[in-house]
Please model this.
Amino acid sequence: MGAADRRASSFAAAWTVDELGPLEHARPMQAPPPSRVHIKSSFIMNGVCVRYRGWIDLDRLDGVGCLEYDEERGRLEDAVLRDQIECYNQRLRDFEEKQRAFRARHERQAEAELESITLKRRALSRQLRGGPRDPPASLSLLVSCASFCERPK
Model:
């Protein structure tokens, strides 16, 4: 069996145009059967933009198809994803900034309240230990009530 015989018995898709002869001798394109539907659809599968190309025979419910990477759609989806991630990151930064401002304001308010309470306690402690003679209003009220309640014997 010679090289030409081996080529003749091999699959037709492996032949070159030179081996098949001029294109005029090629088989004319036939119209697809009416029950055959050709489909071309782009979608995202597992996070990858793909394009399905194929056909389905509606009578036999079988067909052939393939998935191809859709580079143009992939670039578009990637740009949309990057914009969305940047938007989320900006919103997160804004939220964290608001949280820091709220915490700082809350801490300042708590420190002011604590300082006020500490000053009041120190003043009361000095007065009770015999410090400067400015009795608190509640203490003078207590003394006047005690003297009023005493009865002569």
